[in-house]
Design brief:
Two copies of one chain form a homodimer. Chain A is built from twelve helices and twelve strands. By secondary structure, chain A is an alpha/beta fold. Chain A has three domains: 11-170, NAD(P)-binding Rossmann-like Domain (Rossmann fold), CATH 3.40.50; 177-276, Orthogonal Bundle (6-phosphogluconate dehydrogenase C-terminal fold); 288-356, ACT domain (Alpha-Beta Plaits, 2-Layer Sandwich). In chain A, the strands form three sheets. The first copy, chain A, has a five-stranded parallel sheet, sandwiched between helices. In chain A, helix 5 links the parallel strand 7 and strand 8 (166-170). The mean pLDDT of chain A is 90.
Chain lengths: 357, 357
């Protein structure tokens, strides 16, 4: 068995947008030499100015990271494979399509290509949004295909670890199925709910609560990017849409027939689904409880609340602020472990906070 | 024109759960005498012990508030109308069905019935979860039907204002249409996305991000309550489900045909929908921007962040904490107005916070 190769650099990053520049910054932070290229001189200059690396001028590199939108991904990966004797990876949202393009246009070199996908920061864009710590603690999928060279896989794994990510190996097909379910379908469903609000009769949307805000939040993502992502994962997404159509039909039949237990059973399956999502830091979902505090909308009030919570010593796992029309009072929801909720509520109430138990 | 009646009390609250006890507490806080009744002696004793009022023993009252789950709402409203010469309201999630039951069983008294619905606190339950300030600044719909007596409407409006709510008058049909769109459809869609996670292959859900958590959050609500709500609003919900089915079909056709511009147009309509939701405090949506800060998961770190933000003087409109598997670092998203985001980011960076721009 050969020793796994060590990631020594140089690393060439193709595409100095948000992800490319962040990978570059993370690699620089890890002590690696980084070269950059981008069709936009401005992006290149900005990324370089941020300390992400210097402009590529033809030297040999150990690893190439292709960080461009889905439409050009396969083409650029194949170009790099033909031009360099280096391992090539990418950071795109979908993995089967670029692999298929490589198999079609650079089959002799496909063993040096191991695609990957960091689950980080997709709503923002451009090099100025980049950060060396963007990937810290985040899952980063490595798409291991049948012809992938083991050393190439190892090198990409080292890249992920150098950037602080959590490597998760799966096949390109598994990856695309997974993100269809955890990212692409939710995006489409959020978009459908949001579109129904566009022509709501006057005054109806005044009855909006936190629920519809949560459901539709991700629907605000850039359509030009999302149409590329979804188009590149069309078969996995279409399969899920078929399942959704069936599910909508099941709800419709249960509601129309007045079959209450059938409706309740469908809803209960949704509850089960919410419990399947991994908890914070990737552990199993832990039982949480919420403490609701009404906080006047003055600067400093939130700080005071968190200072008190800090002194009380209960760790806050999640926070939500509810939007209240008409009055400048916000309902802050502090999500804490079930075991600590009562203590937090009591202790905050003692400090004169307005607790909604 | 007669003078509008003045809300003087006594107020009888039927049902000492979360909403009923909260209405009772708010009325007590407003200086009104409150009587309570509930089929559960324990709920009654608890609510009374919290200072929500005393047990009803037959005295005349000015206003009755029926606060029971949808299935018994119409029956109990009609009972109260027949038993009392008082204005009767309720706080249920749907308004047409109880009105229809009253028209069928107590038609002579329907002018004294004006249903209402406070948009507050539906995920928690029981008198211990109640609060006198639950309704502060929240929309509270008043369902004005054709036969409603103007003085009765005025009295319910005063109840809403006494409880700190923001009264919104609309017809029962308009109300049910509105909540079908802003609450019931989103609930069903969240449930459908969540149910698709139940049988995900091993390891796939490790690729979950904040998006799927946001979309599915409300799907965790109690199925026994939600089946009542949805069943009681079936025609409005069914109409929207038909529209959703058509929309799913449109997405499916655009994706299957590879028609990129059609897919992009559908997604863009969803973006428009997200901008239709009212902003904080009921105003028009204001352009917001997010500042992302990586915060180590130690007690006190969040407090320190908010103390700094408070000193910097930028008002935080919303907060989200992203969940990061594997590493104890949380990405905190501070939502602030577009005009202040750059300043907040710069100032926090100066204080050594790890900003992901």
């Amino acid at each position: 068995m050969t020793d796994a190769p060590s990631l020594r650099g140089p690393v060439l990053v193709v595409g100095a947008g948000l992800l490319g520049t962040s990978v570059a910054l993370a690699c620089r932070k890890a002590g690696l030499e980084v070269l950059l290229t981008d069709t936009s001189t401005e992006h290149l200059r900005t990324a370089s100015g941020l300390g992400a690396g210097r402009a590529y001028d033809g030297q040999p590199v150990q690893l190439v990271v292709v960080a461009v939108p889905p439409d050009h991904l396969g083409t650029l990966i194949a170009e790099q494979l033909r031009a360099m004797d280096a391992v090539v990876t990418d950071v795109g949202s979908i993995k089967s399509q670029p692999l298929a393009e490589v198999l079609a246009t650079a089959p002799a070199d496909v063993r040096r290509y191991v695609g990957s996908h960091p689950m980080a920061g997709s709503e923002r864009s451009g090099p100025l949004a980049a950060s060396a710590t963007l990937f810290e603690g985040r899952p980063w999928a490595i798409a291991v295909h049948e012809q992938a060279d083991a050393d190439a896989v190892g090198l990409v794994r080292e890249l992920v670890e150098a950037c602080g990510g959590v490597p998760l190996e799966l096949t390109p097909e598994e990856h695309d199925q997974a993100v269809a379910r955890t990212s692409h379908l939710p995006h489409l469903m959020a978009s459908i709910v949001a579109e129904r609000l566009v022509h709501a009769p006057d005054g109806h949307l005044a009855l909006s609560g936190q629920g519809v805000r949560d459901v539709t939040r991700i629907a605000a993502g850039d359509p030009r990017l999302w149409q590329q992502i979804i188009a590149a994962n069309s078969s996995a997404v279409l399969a899920l849409l078929d399942e959704v159509e069936a599910r909508v039909g099941a709800f419709r039949d249960a509601i129309a027939s007045g079959e209450r237990s059938a409706l309740g059973a469908l809803l209960a399956e949704g509850v089960t689904g919410t419990r399947a999502i991994p908890g914070k830091h990737g552990g199993p979902p832990r039982p949480m409880s919420s403490v609701f505090v009404a906080v006047p909308d003055h600067p400093g009030e939130l700080a005071r609340l968190f200072a008190d919570a800090g002194e009380i010593g209960v760790n806050i796992e999640d926070i939500r602020i509810d939007h209240d029309p008409g009055r400048p009072v916000g309902l802050v929801e502090l999500v804490v472990s079930v075991a600590r909720a009562e203590h937090l509520a009591d202790a905050l109430a003692e400090r004169k906070w307005d607790i909604h138990r």
